[in-house]
């Protein structure tokens, strides 16, 4: 938990450049993105140790309107630049170093017990949604308010309702 949290904090502070320990501490006290990732990791820690997650989940909801199922899987380096209105359903999977902006929804569909899978390095813009058992490939970018209902290949840019692939880049190897 603590290694994942450290990576989450590092990614959320990366935009602020090199930081002295004092400035880092002060930013951790004031930034909502840090507060949210701490609460999410605490919720997962409580669930893993069979401690009720109700109180942490309610704090997330009351202050940030965020719902995160303790049955979701979230990789290290989660970045939440504008942490408001985010929903992460049970059985959703989020890879390492993903960015989720405000009002992102990762939800189940039609009673299936498989949520969306975001591979490493996925960027989801404000209001983007992934519905059902879809896979968003590594390094993909999902545009603002897009609704993903089909798989998105790695390194693709997708937008629209329903989301369609606008560009798909090939491997960056020389």
Automatic annotation (TrEMBL):
SUPFAM superfamilies: Trimeric LpxA-like enzymes. Its EC number is 2.3.1.30. It comes from Prosthecobacter debontii. The keyword Cytoplasm does not apply. Keywords: Acyltransferase, Transferase. The keyword Acyltransferase applies. GO terms for cellular component: cytoplasm. It catalyses: L-serine + acetyl-CoA = O-acetyl-L-serine + CoA. Belongs to the transferase hexapeptide repeat family. This is Serine acetyltransferase. One of its GO terms (biological process) is cysteine biosynthetic process from serine. InterPro entries: Ser_O-AcTrfase (IPR005881), Trimer_LpxA-like_sf (IPR011004). One of its GO terms (molecular function) is serine O-acetyltransferase activity.
